[in-house]
Amino acid sequence: MATADPVGGNGQPLLVLGKIGEILDAFSLDRPSLTLSEIRDATGFPTSTVQRLVTNMVALGFLDRQGDQVRVGVKMAYWAAPAVKGVDVLDLIVPLLRQLRDATGETAAFFRAEQGHRVCVALAETNHALRREMHVGKIMPLHAGSASRVLLAWDDELAKSVLAQPLGSITDSTITSADELAAVIKQTRADGYAITIGEREQGASGLSTPVFKANGELAGCLTISGPTIRMPLARCLDWLDLLVESAEHATRLLGGRFPTTM
After folding, report:
1. Domain 89-254 class in CATH
2. Of 152, 140, 155, nearest to 109 (Cα)?
3. Does CATH place domain 15-77 in 1.20.140.10?
4. What is the pLDDT of residues 198-227, one digit of tens each?
């Protein structure tokens, strides 16, 4: 029996599939529930189009609807599970790192906490001649730098362990007071990101934000880093939305979710 061709004669996806994709893209981890008017504003589609597509997407399980609120359908998680089954986390993260590197021109990395240290487990290195030394497998202390703050902010037991140990001075800007470090860890969790300048390496800046697993636990953190001469505080703030969006994308690729208490 013949089936409908999902692409048009020019090899492009059917228009309706593109519209469905744009509606799904309107949802995010910080905006998981939307009204029809909010979907209309996010997509630019006419109200009648939004109403028609949402009605059909609800019927098929793409979306769930309760009152005037619409969410991505729970059935999508069932469909998504086979997509990440057997796929290494880093296979999903590395393309995002390359996109961050290409968008900013600076090194993008993914860090995890391992055995009391933070470790670079994936990297897209800058093309600039002037760069911070970074490589996959590099081990660094957990009390200095933006990535360390993020890794501690969402792991209470790890934070307690680090705060109970002497905090060695690495640069003039390294925090060596347990009380002060505890305060910035708390602020990092409240902000959802960390920016540091010269804390682990003199003349270097870092901007980091968390990535979460399906159970809401920390999977690691995305970091943009480079020389402060190219990454002053103002530039880090300019890139904040880009990094947060990338970390949210990474969380969604992993089938993750934000913890219930941020």
Report:
1. alpha beta
2. 140
3. no
4. 998 899 999 999 999 877 889 999 999 999
